[in-house]
Q: What sequence folds into this?
């Protein structure tokens, strides 16, 4: 797979697209793709990610530029701009327990019909959701999540598209790489095929659509 | 000893060798400082790490090794990393022996509210709902009262974090548990009387005949 | 050319560069032999490998690198391994572009039966139900008839593998598809007439005006 | 964690226990633990594993010794003894699609209430199961699986219990290591703490209860 430029990769994304962005408080986030989203002013985005990061960092840049119209995340408390936009109802925010969020994305990527979880039962999270009884216990049915695009950041990518991640920068990236129609990847290093040992590949190459060249 | 240190030291006594422990932000984070080194506790950071170590020395941090707040941490020998699906598989699957979390309110049924104040603070629940629902043992570490108001209430006014009751509450004044489902004063802080605890507690505490003092 | 080779060669023409492909046991396994090397196809082995290569040379096998039948295989440069949860996440999540499976019966609605003969052969479905339900495209590679009986039937008598219809059936006599949901003769094998196919097919095949011969 | 002997490890398992055993056609199976199960004649076992392997190999040994009373697996076609015992109704066999099987075990290990899957709808697999409609599609509710013991084989184990696996010997081992009350592990090599890089650990140490010493 021949790497593309960040400009070409982001040009594929239309306004109004649903995007998943890997990262946890900006760690393991494809910063270059976010910079390019801002430069190309892709707006009315539906964003699915763990958190809103902080202004100036990671997905925080998308709130700085007011590009997000809908956000699904587990935590936005450390980004005052995202909070402000939510309170002013300029963005619709769906707050989801972090484990439920990652499992919903995994369900979307793995062809499952949803997630049955006790998390959220008896709290405001259960509102409007199907409840399913299994063996005398009650579970919420949380629906599967998918997106048009996933923007992924890896530590190593090879030219086939195999990915490995480093330390706590792995987080949501591997599940999101399974749950989007088009998967766009940046990596700290793009390496020749065979450099990543088979046992150390976390995201198999066939899941990746585009690798963005390092400059 | 200040209130936070007292709470953290008392909570630390609850941990056992081999435990997988998840500490929330705030006071809970301090607990790690008071675990004796001979106790082999695994600390999990829910962003994808077991084996968190102390804050790295200046110049020895790495931007891809952080805690759940995005701040640099270190990893001990034998640490391991994983994705968020595994991290919450561990949490929701009951593999976390103890989670220690901050609280806004705990009520007489052991219900915890710690993630939002409607109309005022809506940061999102992060991993808190999963931790309270999934961990084997849930300990709340918090001040007993805030701005003169008891945080140990008869019934939570704030939105609950989980329908699953917590197991233990450690405050600067008391240790509170729920033996037989009844909210009970288990210990008082050094120099604090049972009457003093009752005076600043909204919930109807059950008081055993003998209430020992925290041993820390 | 024998029947199996013919079928495998014809199926190979369906694969595209970049495809993730899962081949079942039997005739489907042979398909890999007829994929031109310039076509970069990823072959998955559902026991946990993408990038399967040919049977290793004598003395160069490893007991921990095997196919789904437990036989030694090789891994190409760029191969990757994973656990069964990931393997079936790929299969059930629609990430497998093409699966090629053997069949006992395919019926007029495209339903496949390939995993049991009640009272006689009950080996278990292994990954077949997941593959037929989850793969983007399902191709059945099988003999047209067995012991003189058509395997292309009007309605499967054997237990179904999935309620999801297959996309293409390639036999030693014909290529059969389901355009508009109608079972249709798309191609005949070299030297086989439309009449001959119809004579050995139980299902009511729709026959277009022009039925080309397989180009292999 | 101080390694125990295979004798001690298997002595913990009572007759009638439910055990999960890692491996796929005998690859990645803890052979020494199975040999010891046979030697100690642990019987009336409920066995959960991918397949019945072949006689003389992997879980095949348990059928050779007639120790299994109930089997949950996806495929037993290559073990004539298991087939024979099933046909003679000496063992009760629940055949489960492989993807459903691994996902049910994962659900058991991850605290989920079950699995919602389209696999098996409209086939005999759906018999007796709840069907759940989500967004107009029908899914089977497949229940979570757990066991008393999981017998796991890793490539590397360190003395804390961190595990990594090699090539196709990974298969069901990582999910089973999450879904049992007691997890017993053999490994090709037991290595000092720190030898397995954090990013290469697949099963975190706290999941492992006992490591069996290599002789």
A:
């Amino acid at each position: 797979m021949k790497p593309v430029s960040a400009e070409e990769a982001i040009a594929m994304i239309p306004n109004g697209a649903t995007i998943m962005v890997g990262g946890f408080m900006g760690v393991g986030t494809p910063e270059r793709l976010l910079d390019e989203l801002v430069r190309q002013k892709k707006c009315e985005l539906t964003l699915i990610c763990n958190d809103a990061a902080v202004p100036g960092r990671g997905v925080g840049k998308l709130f700085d530029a007011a590009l997000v119209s809908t956000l699904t995340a587990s935590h936005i408390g450390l980004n005052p701009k995202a909070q402000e936009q939510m309170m002013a109802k300029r963005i619709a925010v769906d707050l989801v327990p972090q484990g439920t969020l990652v499992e919903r994305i995994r369900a979307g990527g793995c062809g499952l019909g949803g997630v049955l979880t006790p998390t959220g039962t008896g709290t405001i999270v259960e509102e409007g959701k199907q409840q399913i009884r299994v063996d005398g216990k009650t579970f919420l049915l949380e629906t599967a999540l998918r997106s048009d695009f996933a923007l992924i950041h890896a530590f190593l990518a090879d030219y086939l598209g195999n990915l490995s991640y480093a330390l706590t920068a792995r987080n949501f990236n591997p599940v999101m790489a399974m749950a989007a129609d088009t998967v766009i990847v940046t990596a700290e290093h793009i390496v020749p095929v065979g450099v990543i040992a088979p046992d150390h590949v976390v995201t198999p190459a066939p899941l990746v659509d585009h690798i963005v060249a390092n400059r | 000893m200040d209130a936070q240190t007292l709470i953290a030291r008392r909570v630390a006594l609850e941990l056992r060798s081999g435990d997988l422990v998840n500490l929330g932000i705030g006071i809970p984070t301090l607990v790690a400082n008071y675990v004796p080194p001979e106790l082999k506790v695994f600390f999990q950071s829910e962003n994808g790490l077991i084996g968190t170590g102390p804050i790295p020395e200046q110049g020895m941090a790495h931007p891809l090794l952080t805690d759940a707040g995005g701040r640099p941490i270190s990893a001990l020998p034998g640490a391991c990393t994983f994705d968020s699906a595994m991290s919450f598989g561990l949490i929701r699957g009951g593999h976390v022996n103890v989670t220690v979390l901050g609280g806004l309110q705990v009520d007489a049924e052991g219900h915890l509210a710690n993630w939002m104040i409607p109309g005022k603070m809506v940061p999102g629940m992060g991993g808190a709902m999963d931790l309270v629902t999934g961990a084997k043992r849930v300990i709340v570490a918090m001040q007993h009262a805030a701005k003169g108001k008891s945080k140990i209430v008869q019934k939570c006014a704030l939105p609950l974090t989980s329908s699953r009751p917590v197991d233990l509450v450690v405050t600067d004044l008391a240790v509170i548990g729920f033996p037989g489902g009844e909210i009970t004063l288990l210990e008082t802080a050094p120099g604090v009387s049972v009457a003093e605890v009752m005076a600043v507690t909204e919930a109807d505490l059950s008081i055993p005949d003998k209430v020992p003092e925290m041993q820390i």
Chain B has five helices and 14 strands. Residues 3-12 of chain B form the longest helix (10 residues). The radius of gyration of chain B is 17 Å. The longest strand of chain B covers residues 74-81.
